[in-house]
Amino acid sequence: MSLDVTLLRETFERAKVENGGTRALGLSFYKRLFEKYPAVKPLFHTPPEEQHKKLMASLGAIVAGVEQPERLLPYLHAMGVRHLKYKTENAHYGAVGENLLAVLAEHLSKEGDWTPEMSDTWEAAIGVVAKTMIEAADNPALFKDELAKNGYEPDGFKKNDPSPWLDKTLPIGS
Ligand code: HEM
Predict the structure, then answer these.
(1) For residue 92, what is the domain's CATH number?
(2) What is the pLDDT of residues 89-114, one digit of tens each?
(3) Is residue 168 one of the residues assigned to a domain?
(4) Measuring from each residue's beta carbon to the nearest atom of ligand 1, which residues come in under 6 Å?
(5) How open is the CA angle 80-141-123, to the nearest 5 degrees?
(6) Distance from C-alpha of 153 to C-alpha of 82, rounded to nearest angstrom
(7) The whole model's pTM is what?
């Protein structure tokens, strides 16, 4: 596993400006996901045009917060617990991760390089994100105190904040 933080950030910055930016990347993500993994399509009720903004904002927060585990871990644990409400299963994380890596590769290779190092670093980052979300989804009760300390309800949502993926404590990079 090799997670090169500089490379992760540089490539995300490129994704924002190249080949139609994060809108194009995000829409490709859902298009490919639903084509390749049609079983997960019924879980999504928000149209890709809206949903992609949330996914891209969360990726921006993750990339920005990767060196602040004290902030990023509660953010990811809360997100993992919230996904229980969306009926996400642990087995879906492999599909979503594979899909994200594939669309990033396609997006970034249009106007520049997509190197094995970039692929490795994104694969590692996606793996850590999935593992951290699943850890909390598997046992939300274990994370109740941590979530409360960080302003989340036991179900991972926030009381007076309809957009918990836009964590105010993490610089949002999207
Ligand atoms: C890399 C890991 C993932 C990230 C970063 C991510 C990010 C997000 C974000 C930011 C939201 C917006 C709502 C919220 O934050 O509570 C969301 C909603 C959702 N995600 Fe994920 N997600 C991930 C994995 C998955 C997986 C594995 C599935 C399974 C298919 C999934 C299915 C959904 C669904 C169904 C919704 C709700 C959509 C709706 O409102 O209709 N996500 N996700």
Answers:
(1) 1.10.490.10
(2) 999 999 999 999 999 999 999 999 99
(3) no
(4) 40, 43-46, 51, 54-55, 58, 79, 82-83, 86, 88, 92-93, 96, 126, 129-130, 133, 164-165
(5) 25
(6) 10
(7) 0.96
